[in-house]
Amino acid sequence: MIYDTAQRARLSSKAKFDVFRKAQIAPVEYLVKDNEHRFKDAMKAYFGRPYLDTKLFDFGIVYTEARMA
User: Which contacts (CB < 8 Å, 24+ apart) does range 55-63 have?
Assistant: First the structure.
């Protein structure tokens, strides 16, 4: 019942929700891009992950999702 009510409310204002969602997601891409070297260094230090793996598997997903929003 709660889910149905929330779903109806979301669908009734879908256009507003999409604008809000895009406004919330867009800064994430900039945050990640501005700190990309820090994330790469942290992944290397904590997990031993190569820089290229982090760029392809982690950043690629974030950038794609942010652009599709």
Answer: 59/32, 62/28, 62/29, 62/32, 63/29, 63/32, 63/33
Contact 58, 43 (CB under 8 A): yes
Residue the block writes with tokens 């945050």 = 31
- 18: which 2 tokens? 């999409």
Across 5-20, b (16+ Cβ under 10 Å) vs e yields eeeeeeeeeeeeeeee
Q: What is residue 2's predicted lDDT score, i.e. its pLDDT?
A: 72
List all residues 6 or more positions away from 44 whose beta carbon is below 8 Å from its beta carbon: 50, 51, 54
Q: CB neighbours (10 Å) of residue 68?
A: 7
The segments of the chain whose pLDDT lies below 50 read: none
